[in-house]
């Protein structure tokens, strides 16, 4: 069991690093988008989730799990980007 936990911990370190990188892209998007209503893009959200579902299927991952994870991830990233967008414009 210790070996399994060590493997999970190692993967979590990689996942968090990748998520931090994803958030840096969200921060860039918040700086680039000219208006707040462009932060939420439901068509793009659907595309990202569909891509994740397809990748999950390719890797033998349950698609419903990928769907749930990416729904939460994308919504959390949208909220993060909105917060950054608003904060940047409040200081102007």
From TrEMBL:
Q: Which UniProt keywords apply?
A: Isomerase
InterPro entries xrefs: Chorismate_II_sf, Chorismate_mutase-related, CM_dom_sf, CM_II_prokaryot
Q: Which GO terms describe its biological process?
A: chorismate metabolic process; salicylic acid biosynthetic process
The kind of enzyme this is, by top-level EC class, is isomerase
EC number per UniProt: 5.4.99.5
Q: Does the keyword Isomerase apply?
A: yes
**Cross-referenced Pfam families, in alphabetical order?**
CM_2
The chain positions of domain Chorismate mutase read 1-85
Signal peptide residues are: none
Provide any one GO MF term from the record: chorismate mutase activity
User: How is this protein named in the record?
Assistant: chorismate mutase
The question of whether Protein biosynthesis is a record keyword is answered with: no
> What PROSITE patterns does the record tag this protein with?
CHORISMATE_MUT_2
């Amino acid at each position: 069991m210790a070996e399994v936990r060590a493997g999970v911990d190692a993967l979590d370190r990689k996942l968090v690093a990748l998520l931090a990188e994803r958030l840096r892209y969200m921060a860039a998007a918040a700086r680039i988008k000219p208006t707040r209503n462009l932060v939420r893009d439901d068509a793009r959200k659907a595309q990202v989730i569909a891509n994740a579902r397809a990748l999950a299927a390719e890797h033998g991952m349950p698609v419903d799990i990928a769907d749930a994870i990416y729904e939460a991830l994308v919504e959390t990233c949208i909220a993060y980007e909105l917060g950054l967008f608003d904060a940047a414009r409040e200081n102007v």
